[in-house]
Design goal:
Blueprint lengths: L5 E5 L4 E6 L5 E11 L2 H16 L7 H10 L4 E9 L2 E11 L10 H14 L3 E2 L2 E2 L1 H20 L1 H13 L21 H14 L1 E8 L3 H8 L24 E6 L5 E8 L9 H13 L4 H9 L3 E9 L4 E8 L4 H16 L5 H18 L3 H13 L6 H10 L2 H10 L1 E9 L5
Length: 424
Protein backbone atom coordinates (compact mmCIF):
# COMPACT_ATOMS: atom_id res chain seq x y z
CA UNK A 1 0.00 0.00 0.00
CA UNK A 2 1.12 3.53 -0.73
CA UNK A 3 0.25 6.88 0.79
CA UNK A 4 -0.64 7.98 -2.76
CA UNK A 5 -3.93 6.08 -2.42
CA UNK A 6 -5.13 8.75 -0.01
CA UNK A 7 -7.66 11.11 -1.62
CA UNK A 8 -8.00 14.39 0.27
CA UNK A 9 -11.08 16.58 -0.25
CA UNK A 10 -11.89 19.86 1.51
CA UNK A 11 -15.47 19.69 2.78
CA UNK A 12 -17.58 22.21 4.72
CA UNK A 13 -15.56 22.81 7.90
CA UNK A 14 -13.50 19.60 7.77
CA UNK A 15 -11.10 17.64 5.55
CA UNK A 16 -12.11 14.24 4.20
CA UNK A 17 -9.37 11.64 3.72
CA UNK A 18 -10.42 8.56 1.69
CA UNK A 19 -8.41 5.38 1.16
CA UNK A 20 -9.84 2.85 -1.25
CA UNK A 21 -8.51 -0.69 -0.75
CA UNK A 22 -9.83 -4.25 -1.10
CA UNK A 23 -7.52 -5.41 1.68
CA UNK A 24 -10.12 -5.14 4.46
CA UNK A 25 -13.61 -6.63 4.84
CA UNK A 26 -14.65 -3.69 7.02
CA UNK A 27 -14.89 0.07 6.60
CA UNK A 28 -13.13 2.08 9.29
CA UNK A 29 -14.11 5.69 9.90
CA UNK A 30 -12.11 7.94 12.25
CA UNK A 31 -13.17 11.50 13.13
CA UNK A 32 -10.29 13.55 14.59
CA UNK A 33 -10.54 16.94 16.30
CA UNK A 34 -7.29 18.80 16.98
CA UNK A 35 -6.74 21.82 19.24
CA UNK A 36 -3.79 23.24 21.18
CA UNK A 37 -2.96 21.34 24.39
CA UNK A 38 -4.09 23.71 27.17
CA UNK A 39 -4.60 23.27 30.90
CA UNK A 40 -7.90 25.22 30.82
CA UNK A 41 -9.53 22.81 28.37
CA UNK A 42 -7.79 19.44 28.99
CA UNK A 43 -10.40 18.06 31.43
CA UNK A 44 -13.28 19.27 29.26
CA UNK A 45 -11.74 17.55 26.24
CA UNK A 46 -11.20 14.34 28.20
CA UNK A 47 -14.83 14.21 29.38
CA UNK A 48 -16.52 15.40 26.16
CA UNK A 49 -15.95 12.33 23.92
CA UNK A 50 -16.94 9.98 26.77
CA UNK A 51 -20.27 11.77 27.17
CA UNK A 52 -20.85 11.98 23.40
CA UNK A 53 -20.19 8.26 22.80
CA UNK A 54 -22.48 7.26 25.69
CA UNK A 55 -25.82 8.54 24.34
CA UNK A 56 -27.36 10.87 21.75
CA UNK A 57 -30.69 12.62 21.17
CA UNK A 58 -32.00 9.57 19.26
CA UNK A 59 -30.27 6.91 21.38
CA UNK A 60 -30.85 8.45 24.80
CA UNK A 61 -29.27 5.64 26.82
CA UNK A 62 -26.00 3.74 26.43
CA UNK A 63 -28.03 0.53 26.15
CA UNK A 64 -30.06 1.88 23.23
CA UNK A 65 -26.92 3.14 21.47
CA UNK A 66 -25.03 -0.14 21.89
CA UNK A 67 -28.11 -2.15 20.86
CA UNK A 68 -28.25 -0.22 17.58
CA UNK A 69 -24.55 -0.93 16.94
CA UNK A 70 -25.32 -4.64 17.41
CA UNK A 71 -27.97 -4.33 14.70
CA UNK A 72 -25.26 -3.03 12.36
CA UNK A 73 -23.60 -6.46 12.34
CA UNK A 74 -21.82 -5.74 15.63
CA UNK A 75 -20.25 -2.45 14.58
CA UNK A 76 -17.56 -1.20 16.97
CA UNK A 77 -17.60 2.42 18.16
CA UNK A 78 -15.42 4.18 20.72
CA UNK A 79 -13.85 7.54 21.50
CA UNK A 80 -10.68 8.71 23.21
CA UNK A 81 -8.43 11.70 23.81
CA UNK A 82 -4.64 11.81 23.50
CA UNK A 83 -1.85 14.20 22.64
CA UNK A 84 0.61 14.46 19.79
CA UNK A 85 3.32 16.93 20.66
CA UNK A 86 1.59 20.05 21.95
CA UNK A 87 -1.75 19.24 20.30
CA UNK A 88 -4.78 17.67 21.97
CA UNK A 89 -6.59 15.13 19.76
CA UNK A 90 -10.13 13.80 20.26
CA UNK A 91 -10.89 10.71 18.14
CA UNK A 92 -14.15 8.90 17.36
CA UNK A 93 -13.69 5.52 15.65
CA UNK A 94 -16.39 3.45 13.92
CA UNK A 95 -15.56 0.02 12.47
CA UNK A 96 -18.39 -1.50 10.47
CA UNK A 97 -18.74 -4.52 8.17
CA UNK A 98 -18.69 -3.86 4.42
CA UNK A 99 -22.02 -5.04 2.95
CA UNK A 100 -20.18 -6.09 -0.23
CA UNK A 101 -19.01 -9.14 1.67
CA UNK A 102 -22.38 -10.01 3.25
CA UNK A 103 -25.38 -11.86 1.82
CA UNK A 104 -27.64 -9.26 3.42
CA UNK A 105 -27.26 -6.05 1.40
CA UNK A 106 -28.29 -3.66 4.20
CA UNK A 107 -26.57 -0.33 3.30
CA UNK A 108 -24.25 -0.48 6.30
CA UNK A 109 -21.91 2.32 5.23
CA UNK A 110 -24.86 4.65 4.77
CA UNK A 111 -26.25 3.67 8.20
CA UNK A 112 -22.79 4.03 9.75
CA UNK A 113 -22.45 7.58 8.44
CA UNK A 114 -25.95 8.38 9.74
CA UNK A 115 -24.97 7.01 13.15
CA UNK A 116 -21.73 9.01 13.28
CA UNK A 117 -23.61 12.14 12.25
CA UNK A 118 -26.09 11.52 15.08
CA UNK A 119 -23.24 11.23 17.62
CA UNK A 120 -21.38 14.30 16.39
CA UNK A 121 -24.22 16.70 15.62
CA UNK A 122 -27.14 15.55 17.80
CA UNK A 123 -25.83 14.98 21.32
CA UNK A 124 -28.09 14.10 24.26
CA UNK A 125 -28.77 17.71 25.22
CA UNK A 126 -31.83 19.37 26.80
CA UNK A 127 -32.07 23.11 27.51
CA UNK A 128 -28.48 23.63 26.29
CA UNK A 129 -26.95 21.14 28.69
CA UNK A 130 -25.79 17.54 28.44
CA UNK A 131 -27.96 14.87 30.07
CA UNK A 132 -27.27 14.83 33.81
CA UNK A 133 -27.39 11.03 34.20
CA UNK A 134 -24.86 10.57 31.38
CA UNK A 135 -22.62 13.27 32.86
CA UNK A 136 -22.52 11.55 36.26
CA UNK A 137 -21.77 8.12 34.75
CA UNK A 138 -18.97 9.38 32.49
CA UNK A 139 -17.44 11.52 35.24
CA UNK A 140 -17.11 8.35 37.32
CA UNK A 141 -15.54 6.61 34.32
CA UNK A 142 -13.02 9.42 33.78
CA UNK A 143 -12.06 9.40 37.47
CA UNK A 144 -11.45 5.64 37.25
CA UNK A 145 -9.19 6.18 34.22
CA UNK A 146 -7.12 8.75 36.07
CA UNK A 147 -6.92 6.54 39.19
CA UNK A 148 -5.79 3.60 37.02
CA UNK A 149 -2.79 5.68 35.95
CA UNK A 150 -1.57 5.79 39.56
CA UNK A 151 -1.98 2.02 39.86
CA UNK A 152 0.10 1.34 36.73
CA UNK A 153 3.55 2.39 37.92
CA UNK A 154 5.19 2.13 34.48
CA UNK A 155 2.69 4.63 33.04
CA UNK A 156 2.81 6.73 36.20
CA UNK A 157 6.62 7.07 35.99
CA UNK A 158 6.37 8.12 32.33
CA UNK A 159 3.79 10.78 33.18
CA UNK A 160 5.81 12.08 36.13
CA UNK A 161 8.96 12.28 34.00
CA UNK A 162 7.12 14.40 31.43
CA UNK A 163 5.63 16.64 34.15
CA UNK A 164 9.10 17.31 35.59
CA UNK A 165 10.93 17.55 32.28
CA UNK A 166 8.40 19.77 30.51
CA UNK A 167 7.35 22.01 33.41
CA UNK A 168 5.80 25.23 32.04
CA UNK A 169 5.49 23.64 28.57
CA UNK A 170 2.12 22.55 27.11
CA UNK A 171 3.45 18.99 26.68
CA UNK A 172 3.37 18.50 30.47
CA UNK A 173 -0.45 18.61 30.38
CA UNK A 174 -2.17 15.22 30.57
CA UNK A 175 -4.92 14.56 27.98
CA UNK A 176 -6.89 12.74 30.73
CA UNK A 177 -7.34 16.10 32.47
CA UNK A 178 -7.23 16.85 36.19
CA UNK A 179 -9.03 14.74 38.79
CA UNK A 180 -9.93 17.76 40.95
CA UNK A 181 -11.67 19.55 38.05
CA UNK A 182 -14.09 16.78 37.02
CA UNK A 183 -16.85 17.33 39.61
CA UNK A 184 -17.02 21.04 38.85
CA UNK A 185 -17.90 20.61 35.16
CA UNK A 186 -21.60 21.23 34.52
CA UNK A 187 -23.68 19.88 31.64
CA UNK A 188 -24.15 23.46 30.44
CA UNK A 189 -20.42 24.21 30.53
CA UNK A 190 -19.59 21.01 28.63
CA UNK A 191 -22.21 21.73 25.95
CA UNK A 192 -20.80 25.23 25.53
CA UNK A 193 -17.33 23.75 25.05
CA UNK A 194 -18.71 21.13 22.62
CA UNK A 195 -20.01 23.96 20.40
CA UNK A 196 -16.68 25.78 20.61
CA UNK A 197 -14.69 22.66 19.67
CA UNK A 198 -17.01 21.82 16.78
CA UNK A 199 -16.60 25.37 15.45
CA UNK A 200 -12.88 25.92 16.05
CA UNK A 201 -10.97 22.59 16.07
CA UNK A 202 -9.11 21.35 13.02
CA UNK A 203 -11.27 18.41 11.97
CA UNK A 204 -10.14 15.51 9.77
CA UNK A 205 -12.34 12.58 8.80
CA UNK A 206 -10.66 9.38 7.62
CA UNK A 207 -12.33 6.43 5.93
CA UNK A 208 -10.51 3.33 4.74
CA UNK A 209 -12.01 0.26 3.04
CA UNK A 210 -13.42 -1.09 -0.22
CA UNK A 211 -15.36 2.11 -0.95
CA UNK A 212 -16.50 4.23 -3.90
CA UNK A 213 -14.94 7.68 -3.54
CA UNK A 214 -17.84 9.62 -5.07
CA UNK A 215 -20.39 7.76 -2.90
CA UNK A 216 -18.41 8.46 0.28
CA UNK A 217 -18.00 12.14 -0.56
CA UNK A 218 -21.74 12.38 -1.16
CA UNK A 219 -22.58 10.58 2.11
CA UNK A 220 -20.37 12.89 4.19
CA UNK A 221 -21.70 16.06 2.55
CA UNK A 222 -24.46 16.01 5.22
CA UNK A 223 -21.77 16.80 7.80
CA UNK A 224 -21.74 20.51 7.08
CA UNK A 225 -19.81 22.53 9.66
CA UNK A 226 -18.85 26.20 9.86
CA UNK A 227 -15.69 27.38 8.12
CA UNK A 228 -12.74 27.92 10.40
CA UNK A 229 -9.34 29.57 10.27
CA UNK A 230 -6.60 26.96 10.61
CA UNK A 231 -4.01 28.03 13.14
CA UNK A 232 -0.39 27.98 12.00
CA UNK A 233 1.49 25.00 13.46
CA UNK A 234 4.26 26.26 15.73
CA UNK A 235 7.46 24.30 16.25
CA UNK A 236 7.98 23.47 19.97
CA UNK A 237 10.40 25.89 21.60
CA UNK A 238 14.01 24.71 22.06
CA UNK A 239 15.09 24.38 25.69
CA UNK A 240 18.64 25.11 26.81
CA UNK A 241 19.86 22.51 29.30
CA UNK A 242 22.38 23.76 31.86
CA UNK A 243 22.42 20.65 34.03
CA UNK A 244 20.53 17.37 34.26
CA UNK A 245 17.49 17.63 36.53
CA UNK A 246 17.29 14.65 38.97
CA UNK A 247 13.95 13.87 40.64
CA UNK A 248 13.46 11.00 43.11
CA UNK A 249 10.12 9.91 44.51
CA UNK A 250 9.30 7.07 46.93
CA UNK A 251 6.26 4.81 46.94
CA UNK A 252 5.38 1.45 48.40
CA UNK A 253 6.37 -0.80 45.47
CA UNK A 254 8.77 -3.68 44.96
CA UNK A 255 10.50 -2.49 41.81
CA UNK A 256 11.88 0.98 41.10
CA UNK A 257 11.12 2.77 37.83
CA UNK A 258 14.04 4.66 36.30
CA UNK A 259 12.92 6.95 33.45
CA UNK A 260 15.21 9.39 31.67
CA UNK A 261 14.06 12.14 29.31
CA UNK A 262 16.30 13.54 26.57
CA UNK A 263 15.86 16.38 24.08
CA UNK A 264 16.40 15.54 20.40
CA UNK A 265 14.86 18.74 18.95
CA UNK A 266 14.14 16.65 15.82
CA UNK A 267 10.54 16.34 14.61
CA UNK A 268 8.74 14.08 12.16
CA UNK A 269 9.56 15.28 8.65
CA UNK A 270 12.91 16.90 9.54
CA UNK A 271 15.84 15.75 7.41
CA UNK A 272 17.44 14.11 10.46
CA UNK A 273 14.27 12.29 11.53
CA UNK A 274 15.13 9.06 9.69
CA UNK A 275 18.59 8.94 11.29
CA UNK A 276 16.86 9.54 14.67
CA UNK A 277 14.60 6.53 14.05
CA UNK A 278 17.71 4.49 13.32
CA UNK A 279 19.47 5.82 16.43
CA UNK A 280 16.51 4.87 18.61
CA UNK A 281 16.31 1.37 17.11
CA UNK A 282 19.98 0.66 17.83
CA UNK A 283 20.01 2.44 21.20
CA UNK A 284 16.86 1.16 22.88
CA UNK A 285 13.92 0.69 20.54
CA UNK A 286 14.19 -3.01 19.75
CA UNK A 287 15.18 -6.37 21.27
CA UNK A 288 18.66 -6.18 19.69
CA UNK A 289 19.31 -2.68 21.09
CA UNK A 290 22.13 -1.61 23.39
CA UNK A 291 19.87 -0.88 26.36
CA UNK A 292 18.15 -4.26 26.11
CA UNK A 293 21.36 -6.25 25.69
CA UNK A 294 23.70 -4.34 28.02
CA UNK A 295 21.45 -3.04 30.78
CA UNK A 296 18.94 -5.89 30.93
CA UNK A 297 20.72 -8.99 29.60
CA UNK A 298 24.47 -8.65 30.33
CA UNK A 299 24.37 -6.72 33.59
CA UNK A 300 20.97 -8.04 34.76
CA UNK A 301 20.31 -4.56 36.14
CA UNK A 302 16.81 -4.08 34.77
CA UNK A 303 13.60 -6.05 34.41
CA UNK A 304 13.02 -4.05 31.24
CA UNK A 305 15.03 -1.36 29.42
CA UNK A 306 13.88 0.45 26.30
CA UNK A 307 13.60 3.83 24.61
CA UNK A 308 11.10 5.56 22.34
CA UNK A 309 10.89 8.87 20.49
CA UNK A 310 8.11 11.46 20.65
CA UNK A 311 7.93 12.50 16.99
CA UNK A 312 5.90 15.71 17.41
CA UNK A 313 7.77 17.16 20.40
CA UNK A 314 11.40 16.18 19.79
CA UNK A 315 11.96 13.98 22.85
CA UNK A 316 13.61 10.63 23.55
CA UNK A 317 12.29 8.67 26.54
CA UNK A 318 14.30 5.90 28.27
CA UNK A 319 12.30 3.53 30.49
CA UNK A 320 13.64 0.83 32.83
CA UNK A 321 12.60 -1.15 35.90
CA UNK A 322 15.37 -1.67 38.49
CA UNK A 323 16.08 -2.52 42.12
CA UNK A 324 16.71 0.52 44.34
CA UNK A 325 20.34 -0.40 45.00
CA UNK A 326 21.10 -0.54 41.26
CA UNK A 327 20.18 3.12 40.59
CA UNK A 328 23.72 4.56 40.27
CA UNK A 329 25.02 1.66 38.21
CA UNK A 330 21.99 1.69 35.89
CA UNK A 331 22.26 5.46 35.25
CA UNK A 332 25.98 5.06 34.60
CA UNK A 333 25.52 2.23 32.09
CA UNK A 334 22.70 4.05 30.27
CA UNK A 335 24.97 7.10 29.92
CA UNK A 336 27.73 4.80 28.63
CA UNK A 337 25.43 3.38 25.93
CA UNK A 338 24.56 6.90 24.78
CA UNK A 339 28.27 7.79 24.66
CA UNK A 340 28.98 4.65 22.63
CA UNK A 341 26.39 5.80 20.08
CA UNK A 342 28.08 9.22 19.88
CA UNK A 343 31.44 7.52 19.29
CA UNK A 344 29.98 5.28 16.57
CA UNK A 345 30.55 2.07 18.54
CA UNK A 346 27.89 0.08 16.73
CA UNK A 347 28.24 -2.32 13.81
CA UNK A 348 27.03 -2.48 10.22
CA UNK A 349 25.11 -5.59 11.26
CA UNK A 350 23.22 -3.57 13.91
CA UNK A 351 22.44 -0.93 11.27
CA UNK A 352 21.06 -3.46 8.77
CA UNK A 353 19.13 -5.29 11.48
CA UNK A 354 17.52 -2.02 12.61
CA UNK A 355 16.59 -1.01 9.06
CA UNK A 356 14.88 -4.37 8.57
CA UNK A 357 12.95 -4.11 11.87
CA UNK A 358 11.80 -0.52 11.15
CA UNK A 359 10.58 -1.60 7.71
CA UNK A 360 8.71 -4.61 9.13
CA UNK A 361 7.21 -2.54 11.94
CA UNK A 362 5.91 0.08 9.52
CA UNK A 363 4.44 -2.52 7.17
CA UNK A 364 2.87 -4.30 10.17
CA UNK A 365 1.28 -1.04 11.31
CA UNK A 366 -0.25 -0.61 7.86
CA UNK A 367 -1.81 -4.08 8.11
CA UNK A 368 -4.53 -2.68 10.35
CA UNK A 369 -6.91 0.08 9.17
CA UNK A 370 -6.47 2.04 12.43
CA UNK A 371 -2.68 1.77 12.17
CA UNK A 372 -2.77 2.97 8.58
CA UNK A 373 -4.90 5.97 9.56
CA UNK A 374 -2.56 6.87 12.44
CA UNK A 375 0.47 6.83 10.12
CA UNK A 376 -1.37 9.07 7.64
CA UNK A 377 -2.61 11.42 10.35
CA UNK A 378 0.87 11.77 11.89
CA UNK A 379 2.14 12.60 8.43
CA UNK A 380 -0.66 15.09 7.81
CA UNK A 381 -0.51 17.04 11.08
CA UNK A 382 3.27 17.14 10.78
CA UNK A 383 2.66 19.19 7.61
CA UNK A 384 4.72 16.68 5.64
CA UNK A 385 3.72 14.72 2.58
CA UNK A 386 5.94 11.65 2.90
CA UNK A 387 4.95 8.60 0.89
CA UNK A 388 5.49 5.14 2.28
CA UNK A 389 7.95 4.38 -0.51
CA UNK A 390 9.90 7.57 0.25
CA UNK A 391 9.92 6.81 3.99
CA UNK A 392 11.40 3.34 3.41
CA UNK A 393 13.95 4.75 0.92
CA UNK A 394 15.06 7.40 3.42
CA UNK A 395 15.47 4.81 6.18
CA UNK A 396 17.43 2.54 3.85
CA UNK A 397 19.72 5.44 2.87
CA UNK A 398 20.66 6.46 6.45
CA UNK A 399 24.43 6.21 6.98
CA UNK A 400 26.44 5.46 10.11
CA UNK A 401 27.78 9.03 10.08
CA UNK A 402 24.23 10.46 10.12
CA UNK A 403 23.31 8.30 13.13
CA UNK A 404 26.45 9.51 14.97
CA UNK A 405 25.57 13.16 14.21
CA UNK A 406 22.07 12.67 15.62
CA UNK A 407 23.50 10.94 18.73
CA UNK A 408 25.76 13.96 19.37
CA UNK A 409 22.71 16.26 19.42
CA UNK A 410 20.77 14.26 22.01
CA UNK A 411 20.92 15.86 25.45
CA UNK A 412 19.82 14.32 28.74
CA UNK A 413 17.34 16.65 30.39
CA UNK A 414 15.73 14.88 33.37
CA UNK A 415 16.31 11.68 35.36
CA UNK A 416 13.19 10.55 37.23
CA UNK A 417 13.41 7.67 39.70
CA UNK A 418 10.31 6.22 41.34
CA UNK A 419 11.97 4.24 44.12
CA UNK A 420 10.41 1.36 46.00
CA UNK A 421 10.63 0.89 49.75
CA UNK A 422 12.25 -2.55 49.49
CA UNK A 423 15.79 -2.76 50.84
CA UNK A 424 15.72 0.64 52.51
Amino acid sequence: MEFEKEHIVKMNGFTLHMLQTEKYKTNTIVWKMKAPLQKETATLRALLPLVMQSSTKKYSTTGALRSYLDELYGASFYADTNKKGEENIISFTLEIANEKYLQDKTPLLHKGVEFLTEVLLHPNVTNDQFDDKTMKKEKRGLKERIHSLYDDKMRYATVRLVEEMCKNEPYSIQPTGELNEIDGITGEQLYEYYQQALNEDQIDLYIIGDIQLSEVQNLFSVLSLSDRVMKQKNRPAKKDIEEINVVKEHQDLNQGKLNIGCRTNILLGDQEYYALQMFNGIFGGFAHSKLFINVREKESLAYYAASRIESHKGLLMIMSGIENQNYDKAVSIIKEQLEMMRLGEFTDKEIEQTKAVIKNELLETLDSPKGFIEVLYNNYIGDKNITLANWLERIQAVSKEEIIEVAKKIEMDTIYFLAGTEGE
